[in-house]
Design a protein that fits this description.
This protein has 417 residues and is an all-alpha fold. The chain has 21 helices and no strands.
Amino acid sequence: MRKVLPLLPAVFILLMFAVSAQADDDCVACHTKHNPQIVQDWKNSKHAGEDVACAACHGDEHKSDLDFGKARFASPDTCAECHAETVAQYRRGKHSKAWAAMNAMPTTHFQPMVLLQGMEGCSGCHSIGIQDENTAEALKAQGIRYGVSACDACHTRHLFSAEEASQPQACQSCHMGMDHPQWEMYSSSKHGTRFLMKQNGLLPQTAAAPTCQTCHMPGGDHENITGWGFLAVRLPMPEDNDWAEDRTTVLKGLGVLSPTGEPTGRLEAVKAADVARLSEEAFRKQRDKMIAVCSNCHSEAFAKEELRKGDRMVREADKLMAHSIKTVAALYQDGLLRKPESYAFAYPDLLTFQDAPTELEIKLFLMFLKHRMRTFQGSFHQNPDYTFWYGWSEMVRDVTGIDEAAAELRSKAKPEE
């Protein structure tokens, strides 16, 4: 009898594997009938080759089409069971803050719910960010069983291909459009065109041609943070007094500072969403990482100078932006624009987006979120056309339009002689 006892744990494990294998076989058989391409993607995956089957990610409570709600939705925590360091990097990076960043925008809370919980608008991409458990459960209760994960945004399920996620097209579906057209900038830049020629076999695979991931995820690092952040405002203030004043005005327009220059509650939202570098050390860390990446193809001196050009484009954009913010702010001060109830201050709010109360303020919002973004993002992405025609040139025209509209308001407000 004593000789049999040591065999019991091994027998138990073998039985468990047999039960698990049977359950996975049942999953494959059923889903091959109802969702064959899901099964095919899994069969093509590295997971299948490593015997990581359905229950490992989805649990084993879902048994039939009557209890599909019991299937566990794979979250970053699920992936961390095997990919702990990669998930830890992701949690430190900006992608994990995407949900918080979206909800920090005032305009988010004025949108139809279908654009948010329906994943049709901003949340279609920002759902890559970590959501609290209550939010995820609420979405699930509404039958929304997608968009509450993260890793699968780039490693499309059920293939979960590292090769797919390493291609620049993996970034395209989110990093495009009005406020962050990085795909358009990259794909039409020298960097992007050379890589696309590599993909088409027109250049050798050893040719120098960086992807988005080459620069922003070097060595596969999933942290993915940029020096200037999404808003292109940072601390400490520059030594250039004129630029410091302009940046202060931009911060007031963002609602991070009050019209009198005092920090507001919105500053905490900016910190939580990690959309700005708030110390020289944080900025320098990211800048040094980028210089190291650029130096693989360029001289360090060239890389530093090109990045400094980007910095100077931020300064030029801030000069134009601050001028127009002050123009609209003066209309509030003189009673020519009425403060909306939703505004904390009688001051233009750049984050109200399309909810801005007048055409003049909508023009100001577009100047900030569309044209200012293109001005500095185009420079950092080595795309002169975006920097000039779609960015700085449009900002100059915005200034003219806003000045004329403000002058017209003032003219109408003058009593007739």
